[in-house]
From TrEMBL:
InterPro entries: Crypto/Photolyase_FAD-like_sf (IPR036134), Crypto/Photolyase_N_sf (IPR036155), Cryptochr/Photolyase_FAD-bd (IPR005101), Cryptochrome/DNA_photolyase_1 (IPR002081), DNA_photolyase_1_CS_C (IPR018394), DNA_photolyase_N (IPR006050), Rossmann-like_a/b/a_fold (IPR014729)
Region Disordered, residue ranges: 160-187
Required cofactor names: FAD
Family, per entry: Belongs to the DNA photolyase family.
Gene Ontology molecular function terms on file: deoxyribodipyrimidine photo-lyase activity
Record keywords: Chromophore, FAD, Flavoprotein, Lyase
PANTHER family: CRYPTOCHROME, CRYPTOCHROME CIRCADIAN CLOCK 5 ISOFORM X1
UniProt source species: Microbacterium terregens
PROSITE patterns named among the record's database cross-references: DNA_PHOTOLYASES_1_1, DNA_PHOTOLYASES_1_2, PHR_CRY_ALPHA_BETA
Protein's UniProt name: Cryptochrome/photolyase family protein
């Protein structure tokens, strides 16, 4: 009897450039795809609502594509380690392959499972598929991880070029009999009461084919203007690839090589891939990135008592500050926000409202379709001043000046917060805080923290 190989899909929901899938196919035995919705293992962070919406669509696409090529996708829910072992037994499999993950809890799950499977005689192998450079391969001359982006990225660029992407398999041999699978509808990943995902459906089509199409479109139509227009939220010059990379519908190797082959100057865009790499490298060395200040002196920051009404106003885009409100409404409607506006809205929460960055990180985790365990907390700590290579705390993004510089004709603001248009000024609510005074309050709080944390 032929013993199948199991490919455990996680954040690599694609067929092209998937080394784990390629390894399974190369064994010459039947291949079973497996996805486990793990919300029970210790330390594994449950997905937010927008991420669940995306996952549903991406799994449907992956399942259809595996079926077209002769294989199948098994869905199971529960603790990953026990579920994978159950599927191995049910399928009579003798090999399991997966792509590596870099969060602390995820690595613990993977290491324990690898040990248990090998102990029972199952072949197990993991592969680098989500990053261009594995975290343990990029170190300072002293053998320590980098804490500043520029030398980190310089070191990456001095290393051998990222490997070429693997081609998409045309055929994937499937098993004669399949293990039982959950029905995806039973997972209830889509919102129903209420159905708040209308804007997500209008904006996105999850899945590998749509991801590949967007990459081609970006390289052909938008990359040439990327450097000039990337900071203008109404210009539409951003790549739109962040959720594709987060869910692994595209590999960074594919994006890297196809970008270079496009012939356009792309240093700035590729450095954004580098920033994504840096976030994952920091997470690898600091697994509690989402909950603990990377710079310990910020543990003494004097956060005032939370004012729930102000937090809700920020979440709902009702702060009375046009650029902030436009950004928060774009986020709710589309599941993403322009990167420049992410910085502005985050700065406003942390420094003008003096609300702990972790509250903002939690909201973005729930509302972003590209919410990522590395990039989301990494970027929030960057804005807050508590993270790696962070913006100095005294750098407070003034949303009025940012609007004048990057949205001078108010196109972005009018699109998402029309009550701030010139003909509707009387409809606009007043700001919930004074920008100048709240900046002074933030800087005073920072000075108190510095005095407290001095040795």
């Amino acid at each position: 009897m032929r013993q199948p190989s199991i490919v455990w899909f996680r954040d690599d929901l694609r067929l092209a450039d998937n080394p784990a899938l390629r390894a399974a196919i190369d064994r010459g035995e039947p291949v079973i795809g497996l996805y486990v919705l793990d919300e029970q293992s210790d330390g594994i962070r449950p997905l937010g609502g927008a991420a669940k919406w995306w996952l549903d669509g991406s799994l449907r696409s992956l399942s259809a594509r595996l079926t077209e090529r002769g294989s199948t996708l098994v869905l199971r829910r529960g603790r990953a380690a026990s579920v994978v072992e159950e599927v191995v037994k049910d399928a009579g499999a003798d090999a399991v392959f997966w792509s590596r993950r870099y969060g602390g809890a995820e690595r613990e799950v993977d290491a324990a499972l690898k040990s248990a499977l090998r102990g029972s005689g199952v072949t197990v192998a993991s592969f680098g598929a989500s990053l261009l450079f594995e975290p343990w391969t990029v170190q300072t001359g002293a053998g320590t991880p980098y804490s500043v982006f520029t030398p980190f990225w310089r070191a990456c660029q001095s290393m051998p070029a990222p490997r070429a992407p693997l081609p998409e398999p045309r055929e994937i041999p499937g098993p004669q009999s399949e293990p039982t699978s959950d029905d995806l509808d039973d997972w209830a990943l889509l919102p129903t009461d209420p159905d708040w995902a209308g804007g997500l459906r209008e904006t996105w089509e999850p899945g590998e084919p749509a991801a590949r199409a967007r990459l081609r479109e970006f390289l052909a139509e938008d990359l040439a203007e990327y450097d000039r227009s990337r900071d203008e939220p109404s210009a539409g010059a951003t790549s739109g690839l962040s959720p594709r990379l987060r869910w692994g519908e595209l590999s960074p190797h594919t994006v890297w090589h196809e970008t270079i082959e496009s012939g356009h100057p792309a240093g700035r865009f590729l450095s954004e891939l580098g920033w994504r790499e840096f976030a994952s490298h920091v997470l690898y060395h600091h697994p509690d990135l989402a909950t603990k200040n990377l710079r310990p002196e910020f543990d003494a920051f004097p956060w005032p008592r939370l004012r729930p009404a102000q937090l809700r106003a920020w979440q709902q885009g009702r702060t009375g500050v046009p650029l902030v409100d436009a950004g928060m409404r774009e986020l709710w409607r589309t599941g993403v926000m322009h990167n420049r506006i992410r910085m502005v809205t985050a700065s406003f929460l942390v420094k003008n409202l003096l609300i702990d960055w972790r509250r903002g990180e939690e909201w973005f985790w729930d509302t972003l379709v590209d919410a990522d365990g590395a990039s989301n907390p990494f970027n929030w700590q960057w804005v807050a001043g508590s993270g790696a290579d962070a913006a100095p705390y005294f750098r407070v993004f003034n949303p009025e000046l940012q609007a004048k510089k990057f949205d001078p004709h108010s196109e972005y603001i009018r699109q998402w917060a029309p009550e701030y248009g010139p003909d509707a000024a009387d409809l606009a609510p007043p700001p919930i805080v004074d920008l100048a005074q709240s900046r002074k309050d933030a800087l005073a709080a920072y000075e108190r923290m510095r005095r407290t944390s001095r040795p």
